[in-house]
Amino acid sequence: MRILSVPAVLGPRPFARAIATALVGLLVSAAPARLHAQALTNIGATVAGTPVMLESKSVTRNGTVVTATVRVKLAPPLKSPQGDLISSRTTAMYDCAKQTVATKESWYFLDEAGRKEAMHKVVKMPGFGPAFKGSLADVAMKHLCAAPTAGSAKK
Length: 155
Fold this sequence. Notes:
Elements: H1 6-10, H2 14-35, E1 40-45, E2 51-55, E3 60-62, E4 65-80, E5 83-95, E6 100-109, E7 117-122, E8 129-130, H3 136-144
Antiparallel strand pairs: 1-2, 2-4, 3-4, 4-5, 5-6, 6-7, 6-8
């Protein structure tokens, strides 16, 4: 029994190989959409009552600085040329010692699930500043910088 490989099936035809390469590329490019589906933890609410969700696996610590990604549903939605922005996702650094925050990257989405991206911004040189009381950054900082309680320590 002969096992056929992709080149053997497609033969020397460059057009067929190009189609096969494009199909593989399409399948690989669809994978990142599934990577966004992380476990979300509700860590509080903004002053407007909007729940703030933490992507638990995104949290890293370096001294007193905690880097994490948080999500929030925008209420009311923000108007944009692409349509109503329904949700956002922000990666930021929280300096627990100084109680300041620096946004590294942010996304705005046309859907609550965070799949239809309308805008993506990367901050070239993040600068630390205060978090406004009751804001997304304030809620995240209070959660991430809180002293661990006896029951929440990892074993």
